[in-house]
Request: fold
Amino acid sequence: MSTTEIYSNEVQIEAQQTDRINIGLFGFGCVGQGLYDVLNHSQSLKAEIGKICVKDRSKQRKIESKYFTFERSDVLKNDDHNLIVELIDDADAALEIVGDALLKGKDVVTANKKMLADNFELLYKLQLETGSSLLYEGACAGSIPIIRTLEEYYDNELLKSIRGIINGSSNYILTKMELEGLSYNEALKQAQELGFAESDPQLDVAGFDSKYKLCLLCAHAFGLILKPKDILNVGIQNISSFDINYAKEKNLRIKLLARAEKTGIHFRVYVLPHFIPETGALGTVNYEFNGIEVEGIYSDKQFFAGKGAGSHPTGSAVLSDISAITYDYKYGYKKLKKRDDIDNDIRFVEDDFLIKLYIRYNNRNDLKEFEIESIEEEYSSCENKYIVANVRFSSLRDLPHAHNLFICAVD
Reply:
C-alpha cells in the first residue's frame, strides 16, 4: 500500500468521527465519579461533561455546584447534549431517562444492568425504531469488554456455553474468607467500605446482580432474551468457614458463577455458587476481579479476566462506550436479528435435569423441598450437616430466597 493510500485511509477514518461529544450525565455516585476521573485523564477523546443531574441536594461533591442540576429536563432537553450517559441506581427512573433520550434521537450509554435486563426487548426494539445507539459495556463485567467481544468476535460463531464470575463484590468476600480467614460479615463490611458492594448488598451476595448481567450475556452470546424471573439465582449469603474449609480439603475454591449452556435446542441458565478447581482459570480469579469463559463449537474455550468492581474500572468501561459513540458505533445484534420470533424465550430454558449439589443444612426437614435422586456423600455433627446429592434442578425454583441453606454446585 502506498503512502498516498495510507494517508487517504486516515482521512476517511477521521471523517467518520462525530463532532465533539457533549455529555448529559445522570448520576454522580461511584461510577459517575469514576467516569469523571478517567475522562479527565483521557488524552485523545473529544468529549466533555455538560450538565449532571443528581437527586441528593445536600450531598457534598468534589466538583463545583454549577455543573449540577436536580431537574431531569435540564439534561434531556438541552440541545447541547448529543450523548446521554445514565449512571443512577434506580431502574425505573433509568428506563424513563433512557427511553426519553432514545425517542429524542440521542445516543445513550448506561451501566444499569437491572434496567436493561428487565426491559431488554423494549430497548432493543427502540434502537431499531429510532436508529439511536444504546451501549452498556459497563453494565456487565466491569473492565472486561465482554459484550463488544461477543458482538464483534463471536458474531457468527456458534457458542456452546458462557460462564463466569461477574460480580466483584461476592468474589471479594469469598477471597477474603478463604485467603485471609475473615468471617462473612467482616468481608462484606470491607467490600461495602471499598465501594464494591451495591447500596443493597443482597443484590450482590444473593446473585441478583449476576443474574441481571447473565441476561445481557445470553442476548449477545445466543440471541436469547430472558427476563430475570426466568433465571434461578442462589447466592453466598449463607456461606460459613465450614464450607470454605470443606473446599480447601478437596483442593477446590468456592466461586459464585453465572452460566448458560446450550443443550440441543435448549439452554441451562442459572446463577449458583460452584466448587472450582484451584488450578483452573476461574479458580485463579481473586478479590474484586471478574473472569469469563466462553466456549465455541469451533473456537473451543477462551478466557477473559479483569477488574469487575470499583469506580474506575466501571468508569473506564463507560468511557470506552463513549469513545465508540464518536465513531457512530452500534451493536449489530446479529444473533437476535437472525431470529423471526423473540417472544417468550423462556420456552428454550431447560429445567428438567439433574445437578450435583453440596447442601449444608441445619435441620433434616430443610431438605424436603429438594427432589433428591441419590445421595453420594453425607456428614452430620453437632454443628454442621451436609449432603452431596444429585438433585432435580426444577425443585430449586421452589426454594424461598430466605432459606438458611448453603448450596453449591459440584461439577
In short: DSSP finds 14 helices and 16 strands in the chain. The longest helix spans residues 208-222. The radius of gyration is 23 Å. The first strand starts at residue 21 and ends at 26.
